[in-house]
């Protein structure tokens, strides 16, 4: 998916820093090859690009990544926070290391790179952030407490950036993509239900995410900020954001007993079920 985004941005005229630490899905075996391969593709097509292999999970390395854009091209206008990892485990079996590793890349990484670019965006009175969130965080999934928490955090981070940097003409939006990628390919497929889910995911083309990223990054989308979108093959979604659904009021104040007797029954018909992403997106991708 990152390769597709880099190629599409370059084709639209952007000068691209292609970042990839070159690790396996398990985080092992660092290899600088993938980033350089995408750069070679961009250059072969007549575009401009440079490779970077710093880790978004590290504050200093994220700043070095942004500095690489300044050094190579003189400025930075767009940040796409696409880096992500999974370490799936049922919550009561999830280790501290599995939780911390996912949050470090997915959420802290998005903060590190965004924060490194922010002073440049502010100084030039303009810039665009596109953050990759997930329906796992927006809706829910089994065995992904770490991933869901990090990706819901990314959506909140995007909104906060949009609010804080609006005065500097900086836009920030989030996209929840559906795509069959190397990361998604690590999902367990041990049961018939899991196997059916994986077969459906294989229909999701990662390059289909790129056009929407390019559109959000363009000047023509200058009025679009603080939103959460979804892209699944040829479908594009606009997600809701939390708003008040029901209210309960009493002039006497509430006690635990009156809350149990009155408020919870009043709200119960509007409680959300424990749905997973697949329960909401039940139709085949188009």
UniProtKB/TrEMBL annotation:
It comes from the Bacteria. SMART domains: PKS_KR. InterPro entries: KR_dom (IPR057326), NAD(P)-bd_dom_sf (IPR036291), Peroxisomal_Beta-Oxidation (IPR051687), Sc_DH/Rdtase_CS (IPR020904), SDR_fam (IPR002347). It comes from Castellaniella defragrans (strain DSM 12143 / CCUG 39792 / 65Phen) (Alcaligenes defragrans). This is 3-hydroxyacyl-CoA dehydrogenase. Residues 2-186 form the Ketoreductase domain.
